[in-house]
Amino acid sequence: MDPALELQDDPQELMPRRRPTQERSKRKFDALLASSRELLVEVGFESFTCEEVAARAEVPIGTLYQFFANKYVIVCELNRQDLVAVSRELADFHGEIPSLDWLRHMNQLVDHLASLWVTDPSRREVWLAMQSTPSTRATGAIHEKEFAEVVSQMLRPLTPRTPRVRRTMMAEVLVHVVYSMLNFSVQDEQSHAEAVTELKRLMVAYLLVAEKESRSSGTAERAGARPAAKSERR
C-alpha cells in the first residue's frame, strides 16, 4: 500500500492524469481498463500491479503512467466507469416513477443491478478495492454522491413535497445501501437470491414511508392554509 495515500489527512479525489481524445489513445486507455478488470478478478487488489496490467494490454508501461499515476487511480476510474454505466441504465428507468406500477419497475431495476454483480465479478472486486485507502474511499464517496444526484431526480415525482436537501440525503442512503447489499449478496456461502429479496424489502419499505410522509406533508400544508384564507375573506 502506498504510505502517501494511507496517511493523507485530507484525501483528494483520485483521477487519471489525462483522458484520451484521439481514437488511438482511447483504444490503449480502454485496453488498460479491460486488462485491469481481468487482473483484479484473477489475483485481487493486493497482488494487482501496473506492470502486469500494461503487459496484458500490450501497452508500454510508460504509456500506462501517462494516464494513471498508480493502481489506486486505475481502480477509481473503473469505479467511475461502473457508476456511469448504471446511470445510463437508470435513464431508461427514469419516468416510470411514480406510475401506479412503480414497485414492479423498481424490482426489475434491482434484479438487473443484481445480475450485473453475478455476471461481472469485477464489480465486486472494484468495490472492495475502493475500500483500500482513505483516498480511494473519498473518491468512491464522490462518485456515489454524483450517482445519488441521478437517483434524487428519480425520487422527485414520488416525493414532490419533500425538501430537496432531504431527498438528496435519501438518495445517498439508497445508493450506499444498495451497493453494500450487492457486495453482501455475492459473498461466499451467501444466498444471492435471498440477499436481493431482503434488499428489495428494505427499499420498498423505505420508499413507501417516504412517499407517505411527502403526501402527508402536502395535506398538512393545505389544511393549514385554509383557515388563513378564510380569515382573509373576513
Automatic annotation (TrEMBL):
<dbReference type="Pfam" id="PF17928">
    <property type="entry name" value="TetR_C_22"/>
</dbReference>
<dbReference type="InterPro" id="IPR050109">
    <property type="entry name" value="HTH-type_TetR-like_transc_reg"/>
</dbReference>
<protein>
    <submittedName>
        <fullName>TetR/AcrR family transcriptional regulator</fullName>
    </submittedName>
</protein>
<dbReference type="Pfam" id="PF00440">
    <property type="entry name" value="TetR_N"/>
</dbReference>
<feature type="DNA-binding region" description="H-T-H motif">
    <location>
        <begin position="49"/>
        <end position="68"/>
    </location>
</feature>
<dbReference type="GO" id="GO:0003700">
    <property type="term" value="F:DNA-binding transcription factor activity"/>
</dbReference>
<feature type="region of interest" description="Disordered">
    <location>
        <begin position="213"/>
        <end position="234"/>
    </location>
</feature>
<dbReference type="InterPro" id="IPR041674">
    <property type="entry name" value="TetR_C_22"/>
</dbReference>
<keyword id="KW-0238">DNA-binding</keyword>
<dbReference type="GO" id="GO:0000976">
    <property type="term" value="F:transcription cis-regulatory region binding"/>
</dbReference>
<feature type="domain" description="HTH tetR-type">
    <location>
        <begin position="26"/>
        <end position="86"/>
    </location>
</feature>
<feature type="region of interest" description="Disordered">
    <location>
        <begin position="1"/>
        <end position="25"/>
    </location>
</feature>
<dbReference type="InterPro" id="IPR009057">
    <property type="entry name" value="Homeodomain-like_sf"/>
</dbReference>
<dbReference type="InterPro" id="IPR001647">
    <property type="entry name" value="HTH_TetR"/>
</dbReference>
